[in-house]
UniProtKB/TrEMBL annotation, chain A:
Subcellular location: Endoplasmic reticulum; Golgi apparatus, cis-Golgi network
Presence of keyword Phosphoprotein: no
Organism the protein comes from: Patella caerulea
Alphabetized PANTHER family for the sequence: GEO08327P1, TRAFFICKING PROTEIN PARTICLE COMPLEX SUBUNIT 6B
Similarity field: Belongs to the TRAPP small subunits family. BET3 subfamily.
SUPFAM superfamilies in UniProt: Ligand-binding domain in the NO signalling and Golgi transport
Protein task: Component of a transport protein particle (TRAPP) complex that may function in specific stages of inter-organelle traffic. Specifically involved in the early development of neural circuitry, likely by controlling the frequency and amplitude of intracellular calcium transients implicated in the regulation of neuron differentiation and survival.
Record keywords: Endoplasmic reticulum, Golgi apparatus, Neurogenesis
Chief localization: endoplasmic reticulum
GO cellular component: cis-Golgi network; endoplasmic reticulum; trans-Golgi network; TRAPP complex
GO biological process: endoplasmic reticulum to Golgi vesicle-mediated transport; nervous system development
Top-rank taxon, per record: Eukaryota
Protein name: Trafficking protein particle complex subunit 6B
Automatic annotation (TrEMBL), chain B:
Keyword presence, Transport: yes
Organism annotation: Patella caerulea
Name the UniProt record assigns to this protein: Trafficking protein particle complex subunit 2-like protein
GO CC terms, sorted: perinuclear region of cytoplasm
Organism taxonomic ancestry: Eukaryota, Metazoa, Spiralia, Lophotrochozoa, Mollusca
Location relative to the cell: Cytoplasm, Perinuclear region
Family of the protein in this entry: Belongs to the TRAPP small subunits family. Sedlin subfamily.
Pfam families, per the entry: Sedlin_N
Highest rank taxon of the organism: Eukaryota
GO biological process terms on file: endoplasmic reticulum to Golgi vesicle-mediated transport
Matches recorded under InterPro entries: Longin-like_dom_sf, Sedlin, TRAPPC2L
Length: 158, 145
């Protein structure tokens, strides 16, 4: 059980380290979020290679998304995504009712503005994993009530 | 067994998802260019094989693609990861000791080595593979008997 909390701590420390290292920049919030996102992207790229090592080839995009919701989420956050929705036109919404990185933050309006920096790394992680699987997309996160979180994936078709 | 040590495989190549080579190693180094051609031609067969997989749902969606094509002197095998990185293995036609399952095991080993190499934070995805560790694993795999 204790090993799960290590990832939480590492992530908290990563957020605070990057945030402090950007203090001298003009726009602290944006630069630190961009840095966290790109770190996540690189990690996601490697992780997906490892996770899909023994799985069968994916049939289509939806099959890929299901893998993300089940195996990928389970490997990282020790739970599955609670709800996956799609409009079948390139938008997917992944809802997690108890997102791991937000469970330690109290509910209420007070800490709402610090939520984005704790979601930048997970967004990057998701984007990196999908991009390595050949799905180019934009990932955004949305929080309405604290531990619940929605990730919106918008597929970029060119 | 013949006195001259026969390599298991004469050429191993790792091809990026955009179809440019990341890593190629050949055992008789004097004829390297020939193997570049062989690997390059095999990519069309790989493409054909993976595009047919999506249509046929009953087919096992395995990463290992099997024998891509035989030539007079060589047999070419292929493997594509879920991230569309291609591995190509060239064997001499005279090599009859290796079964399909042995080839599959070799590809698995190669894939494991690739994943370990990719998880190195100092490697930028898409760059040529210069990892000595990876190279050692591949050369050991090619020479073992």
């Amino acid at each position: 059980m204790a090993d799960e909390v290590l990832f939480d701590f590492l992530h908290m420390e990563l957020v605070s380290y990057i945030h402090h290292s950007c203090v001298k920049e003009d726009n602290v919030k944006d630069t630190s979020i961009a840095k966290l996102e790109s770190t996540g992207f690189r990690v996601g790229q490697s992780l997906i290679e490892r996770f899909t090592k023994d799985s069968a080839r994916f049939k289509d995009e939806l099959d890929t998304m299901k893998f993300i919701c089940k195996e990928f989420w389970n490997a990282i956050y020790k739970k599955q995504v609670d709800n996956l929705r799609t409009n079948h036109q390139g938008v997917y919404v992944l809802q997690d009712n108890k997102f791991k990185f937000l469970t330690q933050i109290s509910n209420g309006k007070q800490f709402m503005e610090s939520a984005p920096k704790y979601l930048a790394f997970p967004c990057g992680l998701l984007r990196g994993a999908l991009s390595n699987l050949g799905v180019n997309c934009i990932v955004t996160a949305e929080v309405s009530a604290m531990p619940a979180c929605k990730f919106q994936i918008q597929i970029q078709r060119s | 067994m013949a006195s001259t040590a026969h390599p298991m495989a004469v050429c191993v190549a790792v091809i990026a998802k955009e179809n440019y080579p990341l890593f190629i190693i050949t055992i008789p180094t004097e004829n390297e260019l020939k193997f570049y051609y062989t690997v390059h031609t095999s990519l069309d067969v790989v493409e054909e094989k993976i595009s047919s997989i999506g249509k046929n749902t009953t087919e096992a969606r395995e990463l290992y693609l099997g024998l891509l094509y035989p030539t007079e002197d060589y047999k070419v095998y292929g493997y594509v990861t879920n991230t569309k990185v291609k591995f190509v293995l060239v064997l001499e036609s005279t090599n009859t000791t290796l079964r399909d399952n042995d080839i599959r095991t070799m590809f698995k080993k190669l894939h494991n080595a690739y994943v370990d190499m990719l998880c190195n934070p100092f490697y930028t995805p898409g760059e040529n593979i210069t990892s000595r560790n990876f190279e050692n694993i591949v050369t050991a795999m090619m020479q073992q008997d």
